[in-house]
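user: Please review this fold.
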Amino acid sequence: ETSILEDYNINWTQKLGAGISGPVRVCVKKSSQERFALKILLDRPKARNEVRLHMMCATHPNIVQIIEVYANSVQFPHESSPRARLLIVMEMMEGGELFHRISQHRHFTEKQASQVTKQATLALQHCHSLNIAHRDLKPENLLFKDNSLDAPVKLCDFGFAKVDQGDLMTPQFTPYYVAPQVLEAQRRHQKEKSGIIPTSPTPYTYNKSCDLWSLGVIIYVMLCGYPPFYSKHHSRTIPKDMRKKIMTGSFEFPEEEWSQISEMAKDIVRK
């Protein structure tokens, strides 16, 4: 078993972003001095599955490439003993998150938004063609290759991805971007667990189209700078008013930002 340290120097101080499973760091390949992104996961079946699904999808130009994966025993400073970990070396996306770029510009022009949308859609189409649902599509998981205005956009973080065998039941989501069908699955799941309703022989499932709902939300955010479904209440779970808006698909195009935006763009969001 090769140690990653034979081939790479790891920069432990610089963090590129925080995935669901901890920070992504910078590492430098010794032979070429090229910079890569390094994600470190505890070596568990869930992590192996994430790597497997990401690698299946990563042949596409709009999905962040995995360069290589090491299975090493690693001890972090706060730990008393080393633990088995997967060290995933990925291509470096110097341009950072779509989330950050929207904040910088407040919002995008339709041309900018359409370029991002096209690439995100191609990435999703590729995952879906392999029957893989990403399930965590959000602006933090779309990365720019560099800082140029027309930098390529790539999808990352397959921590919630799953093969869609018609059995997607366990909801994984970020509240702003979650599809109604995922909330409904969660609601039924909780009621069955607490015995309010009998456990159904044919459980309520959702499918890959949950990713398309999230894409619609992202297009909305790119065009105006704020999400279509939100709540004045801050809470760890989804506030009731926000849940209701999502379930009924109730959102608006506030005049101030949307008066300048074409009917065609609004139509894509409505779909």
In short: The first strand starts at residue 8 and ends at 19. Residues 5 and 30 are 9 Å apart (CA to CA).
